[in-house]
Amino acid sequence: MALDTRGVLAIITGLLMTVALIAARSEERLLGTWIMAFSFAVASLWSIMSIFWAQSNPSALTPKLWITMASMAAAATVYFGYMGLHGEGLGE
User: Fold this and answer.
1) Burial class (CB in 10 A: 0-12, 13-18, 19+), 79
2) Among 1, 5, 21, 39, which one has the highest count of C-beta atoms within 10 angstroms of its own C-beta?
3) Is 4 helix (H, G, I), strand (E, B) or coil?
4) Which residues of 44-69 are buried (b: 16+ CB within 10 A; e: fewer)?
């Protein structure tokens, strides 16, 4: 079974979030914040793609629920981006 674009984005998001948490634990808190913001931006793309995918394929979630997930990921992107712009690192 081959991975599609959504699968690759999900893997990238998971890896980026893991790296962000490791960076935050290793005293690179600001870098961890920026990596987390980028990971949620990728998660937003994944959720947006899932909205359209769920309209024509069987899915565990309805398109309305995918919209909710996309808005949550976008909100987290803004939140972590705001933290990064103001020099606040993860866990500070």
Assistant:
1) middle
2) 39
3) coil
4) bbbbbbbbeebeeeeeeeeeeebbeb
What token pair was written down for 16?
């980026």
Interacting residues of 84 by C-beta distance below 8 A, sequence separation 6+: 30, 33, 34, 37
pTM above 0.85, yes or no: yes
Tokens of 21: 């948490």
C-alpha closest to that of 30 among 86, 89, 81, 83: 89
